[in-house]
Amino acid sequence: MLNLTYNYKIIPTKEQTEKIELNLTVCQSVWNYALAQRKLWYNSRSCQVNACSIRSEYIVAPFEYPNYHTQSANLTQAKKTNDFLKSGNAQAMQQTLRKLDRAFNDMKSKGLGFPRFKRNMKSFNLVSSRIEVNGNKLKMPLLGEVKFVKSRDIPEGFKIKQVQVIKKASGYYVNLAIELDVNIPTPIPHGHALGIDVGIQSMLATSDGLILPRPKFLDKARRKIKLLQRRLKNKNKGSNKWQKLQHRIALLHEAVANRRKDYHFKLAHQLCDGVGMVFVEDINFTAWSRGLFCKQSLDMGLGQFFTILEYVCSQTDTYFAKVNPDYTSQVCPECGTHTGKKELSQRVHSCSECGYTVDRDVAASIIVKQRGLTAVGAPVVKQPSNGVLSGTSV
User: Fold this and answer.
1) Which residues, other chains included, contact 79 with Cβ-Cβ below 8 Å and sequence gap of 6+?
2) Which of the four, 247, 303, 310, 363, has the lowest number of CB atoms within 10 Å?
3) Kind of pairing, strands 159-168 and 277-281?
4) In this structure, are 200 and 165 located in the same domain?
5) What's the pLDDT tens digit per position in 145-201?
């Protein structure tokens, strides 16, 4: 089964905009109430039966774990007496509960953080087989026919299974989840291998010698953002001028995010060109975002880049895999000698055993490549030991 997601900008009428805003508010309330129920269940069972917390403990009447099915049934009952819930779309609220349930499952299986309360809901989902595209109009539940900017055609044979309505600073958008009943083979290891090492001073370095400096997406807009935030401080919160400034700041942040995502897609296609295997480090970027260089790490968006790179690899028949990131900068790629920890200011790898000299990040990317080839059972080819500093900065 081939699944794709196409994004379009919609141009809703005034009545359709009011429906979108109403359902965003209702879904936000459903999410927060359901999350509060689950947190209460967890907090009331944080201690053992025969012990109590030193500080405090929740004492509530015993109740079953509020899973999706329980909360969905309670929502159906609450809609009969609550006019606010009755005003929202039932399917959007059900999908909100499903999204919360997936967040809890990911928290347990992937080790992610606890879901958070929503201050402003930005999207809701609608699942239906009655979603159709007629020219520049999209027919969907809740909104009926809505105009949209048809930036690209939906491929022939694909069926629209789900639509996600999204609110951004620049307007309203929809994500159309389309699928085609066809078997797509998983890429297998073949062809030329490429190892990628990521860092802070340079965004990434490849085993082929390419070094890319850190792109400064936010720096180009930081001066305008700071100026607007300084003006925002002197406005009355909630006033018209305050809301206008908030909107301008949100537009600047959205433009930065769009530039970053566009750069990631172009870079991913560049790296996959003529390559059969791509190996990257299995890094916890959440920890990176809390470190000393958190601002630089978040501005590069390396977690998003790896996700995009994996997607582009699947579309270009390129094998993608993650390897152990430990000690990649402390091992010589030529002789395998452990050279010890390097200071951040030391940008050149020079092995005292074999004399192999290369850029530090390029050496780490070669180690990533060698570990990836070992994992897939492919022969590891040593780098030429010429003692010359290599690496091409672009």
Assistant:
1) 85, 86, 90
2) 247
3) unpaired
4) no
5) 999 999 988 888 889 999 999 999 999 999 999 998 888 888 888 889 999 998 888
Strand duo 202-206 + 132-134: pairing: unpaired
Task: Answer for the pair 195, 277: CB distance below 8 angstroms, yes or no.
Answer: no
Contacts of 387 (CB under 8 A, 6+ apart): 355, 356, 357
Q: Please check whether residues 126 and 205 belong to one and the same domain.
A: no
117 with 231, same domain: the answer is no
Q: Where does residue 300 fall: left (phi above 0), alpha (psi -120 to 50 degrees), or beta otherwise?
A: alpha
Tell me the per-residue pLDDT of 26-53, one tens digit each, with 9 for 90 and over.
999 999 999 999 988 887 776 665 666 5
- Same domain membership, residue 267 and residue 125: no
- Judge whether 232 and 244 are in contact, CB under 8 Å: no
Q: Are residues 75 and 142 in the same domain?
A: yes
With cut-offs at 50, 70 and 90, classify the pLDDT of residue 116: very high
Domains identified in the chain, total number: 2
The first and second tokens of residue 150, run together, are 């048809």
Q: State yes or no: pLDDT of 228 exceeds 80.
A: yes
Q: Give me the domain span that covers residue 362.
A: 193-393
Based on the fold, state whether residues 148 and 26 are members of the same structural domain.
Answer: yes
Half-sphere exposure of 275 toward its Cβ, with a 13 Å CA cutoff?
25
Chain mean pLDDT for the chain: 86
